[in-house]
Design brief:
The complex is a heterotrimer.
Chain A (H helix, E strand, L loop, with lengths): L1 E10 L2 E11 L4 E5 L6 H8 L7 E6 L2 E2 L5 H6 L1 E5 L10 H5 L1 H6 L3 H14 L4 H4 L9 H13 L5 E5 L7 H18 L2 E6 L2 H7 L2 E6 L2 E6 L1 H6 L4 H7 L4 H8 L7 E2 L8 E2 L4 H11 L3 E5 L5 E6 H5 L2
Helix pairs in contact in A: 5-7
Chain B lengths: L1 H5 L5 H15 L4 H7 L13 H31 L4 H14 L4 H12 L3 H25 L3 H9 L4 H34 L10 H8 L3 H29 L6
Helix pairs in contact in B: 2-11, 4-7, 4-9, 5-7, 6-7, 7-9, 8-9, 9-11, 10-11
Chain C lengths: L1 H14 L3 E4 L7 E3 L1 H4 L9 H8 L7 H32 L5 E4 L1 H20 L4 H20 L7 H8 L1 H35 L1 H16 L2 H18 L1 H6 L6 H26 L2 H9 L4 H35 L7 H11 L2 H31 L3
Antiparallel strand pairs in C: 1-2, 1-3
Helix pairs in contact in C: 1-5, 3-4, 4-5, 4-6, 7-16, 8-9, 8-12, 8-14, 8-15, 9-12, 10-12, 12-14, 13-14, 14-15, 14-16, 15-16
The chains are: A alpha/beta, B mainly alpha, C mainly alpha.
Chain lengths: 308, 249, 378
Amino acid sequence: MIELDRVTKRYGNSIVVDDLSLAIRDGEFCVIIGSSGAGKSTALKMINQLIPLSAGVIRIDGKDAASVVPEELRRRMGYVIQSIGLFPHWTVERNVGAVPALLGWPAARIRDRTRELLVLLKLDPEGFWRKYPHQLSIGQQQRVGIARALAADPDVLLMDEPFGALDPITRDALQSEIARIHRESRKTIVFVTHDMEEALKLASRIAVMDRGRLIQAGTPLEILASPANDFVRDLVGQDEVGIRLLSVETVGNRLRRGEAAPHQPIAATASLRQALSRMIAERTDRLAVADAEGRPIGALHLSDIVRR
Amino acid sequence: MSAKRNMPWRDPLLWTTLGFVALVLLMPLLKPVFAALFPRLERPLYEQDSFVDLAAWHIALVGISSVASAAIGVAAGIFVTRPAGAEFRGMVETVTAAGQAFPPVAVLAIAVPVIGFGAEPALIALTLYGLLPVVANTIAGFGAVPPAVREAARGIGMSERHILRHVDLPLAAPVIIAGIRTSTIINVGTAAIASTVGARTLGSPIIIGLDAANIAYVLQGAILVGSLAIVLDLGFDRLVRAAQRWRRA
Amino acid sequence: MLLVLACIGLATGLGLAFLTHAPNRLVSGRPIPLTAVVGGASLVALLPGVALLAGPFLPQRRSAHRLVAAAAAAFLVALLWRAGAQAAALAEIAPRAARTSLGGGFWGLFICAALALVDAEHRLRLRPSARFIAGAAVAGAILLLAGSGALDQLAIVREYAARRSVFADAVIRHVAIVFGALVPTVLLGAPLGILAQRRPALRAALFPALNLVQTIPSIALFGLLIAPLSALAGYFPGLAALGVAGVGVTPAVIALVLYSLLPIVRNTAAGLDAVSAASVEAARGIGMRRGQIFRYVEMPLALPVFLSGLRIATVQAVGLVAVAALIGAGGLGAIMFQGLFADALDLVLLGAVPIILLALAADALLDLAGERGRRRPA
């Protein structure tokens, strides 16, 4: 559990983070969103003490983060940044193994772990681990960046607009990757972004910040359905609310069990938005729904999507 | 590159070094050649000191001053780029920039009224003058380390000392070595002139030859000094490339 | 920073001799401490020095930096004035051959004050033109002081007085050789640089050769040129009549051109490299011909880098001409080496200090020209 208790950061006369109180539970995927200058990166960097606090306390599992030596704290957290920051003079293998090496793991264990992580991030170990960062595409570099952050198996992963510098296709792929990693490992992820789509896609909880203040914190559904003020409403986007609400719910919630429908089924875990998109593309108002094994379990009607 | 690994005899550094050593050791054998080229000279070969001694003194002078200026210069560069030394940085940068406009021979000459004649003023002048490119290049080298890399290093939990040793220095190494190279090569030339302040180096035959209108002396000294400079330059080139090996993968 | 300078300045100023006084130029002098120089009315002159000592303890504001800069500049002039006055006082009671030289204490204080001035200029974030004016002001004040005869009894000035015309000739000759070498270098080097930038094959052949020349120490290159040039002058008496000889100006100029080619050629090529392809393409797009593109787009944009190369070449040339004195080219180096060979240390300074000043002046002037070049709209 990461607890930000009335955290404030001042630079001279300007207040960058203003009396921020936020509790991030274990296993949560907490996305901090806001426009540029909202203080979200600063808030993130205060969690791992990269930026010292002006006031307030940050508690990690009950203990004051400031009471731990900063380097030790950071070695227990993964940290991924937008500009990636791989060490250009180290091979991929050495980059990924950076934190385990700092922690003094034996070489064999580091090698095994590196291999494991490269596979996890869909990078073929044989092909990649002798390479240097400049030989990789930017998407591959960020995969290595994430692998490096996960190497010592931290409980917490801090990510500062990690996909901001990537092209849309790579960004999409890596978003799915990190969502999968979160599902499988149940780590606590604190993720900063200015992209609402990204936040809605990934978050289990969203914290909206503006000019250093926390405006609203809640599940994606809460943010969409009951925005606290005009700022949040604008951030979500007036015209997009409906479509965005659809991406938050899955087909499984609205299907009619036992019914049949023609053509290719859609997965029960797909979002209602994807279902609507298919219906429009296939010019139908019904879709067959299948479970994880591909067995048909029911049908989804267009009217059920629209009706509450 | 692979040519050098498989066929070491093709390596320019190897045969220029061998050539230099051969010239130093075997110059006396060339006496008849010089006698034939300059028949009117009574003494076609410089014999006041052995060329081996001169070469040893010259290399010692250059070597000691280079090591000293490298050590002090890199340390100063590190100090000035850390928070503790930040307030000295502006002035150090200005002084090193202005100092490089000082002609090395003038710095050598000025050392004499202050310290006296002999090898000591030469050593001090060479070290002081050699500091400038090293400090300038150390500062520049550290400045070229991408900020993202440093942020990532801090973020994953590296201590400042660890970052200096494993990130800053290796990444700045090519530029720093280039600075040491510049100062060493300049020092080879200045050390040659140091015979005018009382040190004995490979430049002594040149200076004495110029004074006595003995072109043979001048040529012998010039060939040796020139070859030494080339050998050292090739050696440093090799070092710089080694420090950048990862870039060419 | 200022505190460190103040400590070093005080330590050297009080610890080392301010002046040294010798009965003649061959014997080393007896030290004269700072305390002997300061007394009575002259205490006023050293007030700027006291102000400098207070500098480290003032709050870090622009007014404080300006005060430090002014105090440092004034102190530099005051130090020279007091040294000159003391030398004059000593000269009245000493035999004609006696010499009063500037000692380690003087230089320590002088250099620390100069560094304090540089530091203050830096904190005030002055542009090169402003710094140039500040430097010129100090230089001007010192020249005025010298002109008024206040420094006449210092050994270095007496050496100058003893050979005024020789000195003037040396300066003119030094500058002439630098110019005489740089003009052909630019005329040859700039076109070569342009060609090299357009033809990678030429670049790959030329640059290593020029780099090789740069590696060879100057005295060695001078030495290597003597033999063939003497032979040449021997076989073609016509050349000898023109003044081409194995020693003297000829090998100096030839070597200087060879050395100066690298910075000029390299920086011309680099400057043209730096002109963005987008600018050139835009120019072509609006219908400029090749020659016009070069004149109106490439040249102005490449100028700053070229001027930087010219600056490097000029400063280097001043030093090279000093070394060339050893092969008989004359110039300020001749005075300097004469002092070294005769163990007359103030003569060494008479040669070395102007060489340094010349190099610094060339550096500052070309830096200023570069700044102007950068500010001109392209």
